[in-house]
Design brief:
With about 130 residues, the chain is mainly α. Helix content is about 65%, strand content about 0%. It is elongated, with a radius of gyration of 29 Å. The chain has a single domain, classed as Helix Hairpins. The protein starts with a helix and ends in a 27-residue tail after the last helix. The longest helix has about 50 residues.
Length: about 130
């Protein structure tokens, strides 16, 4: 798992770096604009404020979309998977903990007098008698 996470992180960093350098030198944009265009493109936001003007820039943007979007999608998927696993672990811990408390609670059996609802709303409603 640790190896896969590092691979995804390095892949995203490599893709953003390569895209930034490509647009810096091919389109002549500033480093910030090149970085911004790369991130906006692979994240599918696409503001449209920057558009490649050269043929090579347009081809590079197309390649970036195909490869960058795939790498970005895998990164998002891995992040979601990590969060789901953490949530499952926390849920399992909580269920085990509650199960432990339930075991102790079963040792105490309330008497009939103590089995009174805390609120009137909690009292069971009896069904009306059937009509004949």
């Amino acid at each position: 798992m640790h190896f896969k996470a590092l691979t995804v992180i390095y892949s995203v960093i490599f893709t953003v770096s390569l895209g930034t350098a490509f647009f810096r030198y091919i389109e002549g944009w500033s480093w910030l604009d090149s970085y911004f265009f790369t991130v906006v493109t692979i994240s599918t936001v696409g503001y449209g404020s920057l558009v490649p003007a050269t043929a090579l820039g347009k081809i590079g943007a197309t390649v970036l979309i195909f490869f960058g979007l795939g790498i970005f999608a895998v990164a998002i998927q891995q992040f979601a998977l990590y969060n789901m696993r953490k949530r499952e672990e926390e849920t399992e811990w909580l269920v085990a903990r509650l199960g432990h408390h339930r075991h102790h609670a079963e040792q105490y059996k309330p008497s009939e007098e103590e089995d009174v609802p805390a609120n009137e709303d909690d009292r069971p409603v009896s069904a009306p008698a059937p009509r004949e």
